[in-house]
Write a structure and sequence with these properties.
It is a single chain. With 331 residues, the chain is mainly α. It is 79% helix and 0% strand. Helix 1 runs parallel beside helix 9.
């Protein structure tokens, strides 16, 4: 059933879809950076493929959406102003890091915005610390799993194809990378599109439009399309950082990085853990690069990325706090 969208609720839904668009735009590099940098696909074909598979992936599950919608802050203790401020803070952080070309987590930007606006509105009692703890644990574990999975896959491939001629290996993995890039795009949609679904569900719960944290069908469809459309725009500065500035990639490295990251993301999407797609694929690229030799990874660029990761939660939270205080002045 389609709810009565008016007033602040309508603003929240529009902002949530804008966030999903910015998420797709910002995170398109997660799906296409390696396949573009290895020249397996042209940029245009890559973004169209990634956009379509992002939409398909968004229909896979709603476990993460339920976690975001009811597991981070108490739906009964917040207002539409809080949700709008959280979304505004996350969007501003996405745009800021997009301009800098830094592959940061849109998921953590959104969660930081929710915590910042929620704390400003209702204090610590609004925040569900068990859910926040899961996010912080995932912030550590997803890069670790991404790095180790990419590293392990690259070791396995190296040993398996040790005697294969280089020209044959390049042709083989150029074809296989088409599959791994599609796998990564699908898993990105399955994980990240759910964040905006959760926010809209939270807004519907807090306004009394629905009485339980189940994601309506129209929300799934709208968020899937917004994410897919944003992905087709392509965040090219981040594509260059992720695909070219961390480590020099060949098709075999792109295949290993994408396959490892996508496997981690689909597993966490299934259990409802809101991990960062960006953290996972970036660390997987690092793991793949490290197997060549440790110095092959450009650790100076990596350090800038790690700093941006650390500042995402508090940065988006402060932006959301400022927006909430600004809205309160005019309310």
């Amino acid at each position: 059933m389609f709810p009565d969208l008016s007033g602040m609720l309508l603003v929240v839904v529009v902002l949530a879809l804008l966030f999903d668009f910015s998420n797709g735009w910002h995170d398109s590099a997660n799906a296409i950076a390696t396949v573009v940098s290895t020249r397996v696909l042209s940029p245009l074909v890559a973004v169209v493929m990634a956009g379509a598979l992002n939409v398909a992936g968004a229909f896979m599950s709603t476990a993460v959406a339920k976690m975001v919608g009811a597991g981070i802050v108490d739906p009964g203790a917040i207002t539409q102003d809080v949700v709008a401020s959280a979304l505004g803070g996350a969007i501003l952080w996405n745009l800021f890091t997009l301009l800098l070309g830094l592959p940061t987590s849109s998921s953590h930007a959104l969660i930081g915005g929710m915590v910042g606006a929620g704390l400003t509105h209702g204090g610590w009692s609004v925040v569900k610390f068990s859910g926040l703890r899961s996010v912080l644990e995932a912030m550590v574990l997803s890069p670790l799993f991404g790095f180790l999975t990419g590293l392990a896959l690259m070791v396995f491939i190296t040993w398996t194809f040790f005697r294969t001629a280089r020209s044959l290996a390049i042709r083989l993995f150029s074809r296989l990378q088409l599959l791994s890039a599609g796998f990564m795009a699908f898993s990105h949609g399955a994980n990240d599109a759910q964040k905006a679904m959760g926010i809209i569900t939270l807004a519907l719960l807090s306004s009394g439009q629905i009485d339980k944290p189940e994601v309506p069908g129209w929300v799934i469809t709208a968020c899937a399309l917004a994410m897919g459309l944003g992905t087709t725009v392509g965040g090219w500065k981040i594509v260059r950082t992720l695909g070219m500035r961390i480590v020099k990639l060949e098709p075999v490295h792109g295949f290993a990085a994408e396959t490892g990251a996508a496997a981690v993301l689909l597993a966490t999407a299934h259990i409802g853990l809101p991990v960062s797609t960006t953290h996972t694929i970036t660390s997987s690229v690092m793991g793949v690069g490290a197997i060549k030799r440790f110095s092959a990874v450009r650790w100076g660029v990596t350090a800038r990325i790690l700093y941006a990761w650390l500042f995402t939660l508090p940065g988006a939270g402060l932006l959301a706090t400022g927006l909430y205080l600004l809205i309160s002045l005019f309310a």
